[in-house]
Backbone:
């Protein structure tokens, strides 16, 4: 009976090819991604050693992965040496913040995309304040950490904080045009998750498409000591007037209005004291002294309003008190000090229009 020769391994019709080395595959993946080039290079070299020892496939993968990783490692080294890595990271960080890249600092002006300060803003161009521009940054605010409070809560906080800071940048409310209002740039939810907590407070024109021209800054860096002293005294009264009760009608909250009148009376006394304490230049001494005397009379009326027994008595003294702090009474002193003299046309007789 003939003997049959068995099939050898080399001639088996279903011979399994040698496996592909896993380190070679991983090396190529890291080389293509370039996220960890050092890892890809190490894996490629280790994969070549295993391939030679085990007879596995994947030499091309290991060589390619090691080459790509080596190039990536050299690129990262170059970026670190030149500072490019930092710039690259900030680019990614800005992207994570929803594209917000407002670069102007306090006192700088800019143009916004489309010339509007509403909606989403992803980039702005700094321009000189002397020429036409869309906005002027007057303050920045850093919000506290914690979970994102929501768009409405962030906007409410931004509005409150920015409006509390506008007088520090534009001390003379009379010098701010009536068509200028406060805007703000706030972080989005995605930006908050990336660490963005900054609110940028901006002056802009309320008329769509209209520009600002010239800087609105008038503070200690622009005004002289006499002008600053006068405006600081005026701000004491304005701050008290801003604390009026939410109830518009006295009949709806007489105790609240009486407490408010007491605060205004105290502020008028402090304003008069500050005006008398300053050493004014000769040309302004007379007008300021006359103004302080008028504030004393106003203080007495507001004090009586604070003690009023009913709404009618409150209205009587409050109306007289308002007449005695009419903004026009401060024009002579302002003219002598070189401040704005055009009385603002306030919508409700509040805020800057009450600076006397």
Residues:
């Amino acid at each position: 009976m003939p003997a049959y020769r068995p099939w050898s391994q080399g001639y088996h019709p279903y011979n399994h090819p040698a496996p592909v080395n896993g380190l070679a595959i991983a090396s190529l993946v890291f080389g293509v991604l370039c996220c960890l080039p050092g890892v890809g290079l190490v894996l490629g070299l280790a994969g070549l050693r295993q391939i030679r020892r085990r007879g596995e496939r994947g030499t091309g993968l290991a060589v390619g992965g090691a080459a790509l990783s080596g190039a990536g490692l050299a690129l990262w080294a170059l970026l670190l040496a030149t500072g490019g890595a930092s710039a690259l990271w900030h680019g990614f960080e800005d992207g994570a913040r929803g594209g917000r890249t407002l670069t102007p600092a306090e006192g700088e002006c800019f143009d916004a995309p489309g010339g509007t300060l509403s909606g989403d803003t992803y980039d702005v161009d700094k321009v000189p304040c002397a020429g036409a521009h869309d906005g002027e940054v007057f303050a920045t605010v850093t919000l506290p950490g914690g979970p994102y409070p929501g768009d409405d809560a962030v906007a409410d906080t931004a509005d409150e904080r920015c409006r509390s800071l506008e007088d520090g940048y534009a001390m003379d409310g009379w010098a701010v045009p009536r068509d200028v209002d406060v805007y703000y740039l706030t972080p989005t939810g995605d930006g908050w998750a990336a660490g963005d907590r900054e609110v940028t407070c901006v002056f802009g024109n309320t008329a769509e498409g209209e520009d600002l021209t010239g800087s609105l800054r008038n503070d200690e860096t622009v005004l002289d000591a006499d002008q600053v002293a006068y405006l600081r005294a005026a701000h004491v009264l304005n701050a008290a007037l801003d604390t009026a009760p939410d109830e518009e009608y006295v009949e709806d909250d007489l105790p609240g209005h009486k407490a408010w009148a007491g605060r205004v009376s105290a502020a008028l006394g402090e304003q008069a004291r500050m005006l008398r304490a300053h050493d004014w230049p000769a040309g302004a001494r007379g007008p300021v002294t006359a103004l302080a005397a008028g504030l004393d009379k106003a203080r007495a009326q507001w004090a009586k309003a604070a003690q009023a027994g009913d709404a009618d008595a409150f209205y009587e003294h409050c109306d007289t008190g308002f007449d005695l702090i009419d903004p026009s009474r401060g024009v002579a002193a302002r003219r002598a000090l070189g401040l704005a003299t055009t009385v603002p046309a306030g919508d409700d007789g509040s805020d800057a229009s009450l600076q006397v």
Summary: DSSP finds eleven helices and seven strands in the chain. The radius of gyration is 36 Å. Residues 18-79 form one domain.
